[in-house]
Amino acid sequence: MMNPVGEAGSMQRASRDRGESQVQPVVIDRITFVSSGTPEADAAAETLRNRYGDVGLEAATAIVALGGDGLMLQTLHRTMERPIPVFGMNFGSVGFMMNSYASHGLTARLEAAKPTHIYPLQMDVIDAGDKRHEALALNEVSLYRATYQAAKIEIAVDEQVRLAELICDGVLVATPAGSTAYNLSAHGPILPIDSPLLALTPISPFRPRRWRGAILHNDARVRFRTLEGEKRPVNAVADNVEIRDVREVTIRERRDCRVTLLFDPGTSLEERVLSEQFRY
């Protein structure tokens, strides 16, 4: 393993937890690199390791992810137990969560980078066999019909049934960060990245046909209960974790853990989400 080079840097970050602003220094002096495994990303990782060294995940104070948005999500999930800022460089298709690639000036970019904090959703599931499961999602928790039959789902918010029967292909709850992903494709609202909100969005609703979902406070606790489950089985997915044949799914935001993305100045996730709302 090579020794890292470069001077220790510091960065100020503003925390918006519950509307309170706190400034804390973040020291980034030990870097590790992860690659999506494509030839281009692997070659870039080798170049960067030769230039800056690689201390490994356990010792790192910053992760540089070389790939696309999928790699970024995988890397962020790996850092939930030990939060480490992640700076992405795009070697994927979209790269909505990534910065542009350059092999030079990385230490200075990390020092100047703007942090964005994302709080995950907790998915608690009871399946048809009464077995319990749980998973975390940074983008969204989604329910999907598992056969040709449309799903029938009851929706409750904070223990009050708000929709007794939604007939649909599925339904999802998205974080602000995930509101521009599958939620947007399902015609859900785009949420400002620092807003204390969640998007509740149906997927191809048949009845009630005109229902387009709801915007909820991030304190809300959402419960989905499948109806006629034996005839109309439903699967639940938290980012890339799928639970089959679910009976009940409860979703809430976790404020006791978070992940941190780093962006070059002027290209923050906040700016990208805002710009997305003016695309036509």
Automatic annotation (TrEMBL):
InterPro entries, per the entry: ATP-NAD_kinase_N, ATP-NAD_kinase_PpnK-typ_C, NAD/diacylglycerol_kinase_sf, NADK
Location within or outside the cell: Cytoplasm
Reaction(s) catalysed by this chain's protein: NAD(+) + ATP = ADP + NADP(+) + H(+)
GO term, biological process aspect, one: NAD+ metabolic process
Active site: residue positions: D69 (proton acceptor)
PANTHER family, per database record: NAD KINASE (PTHR20275:SF0)
Name of protein: NAD kinase
Annotated source species: Devosia enhydra
The encoding gene: nadK
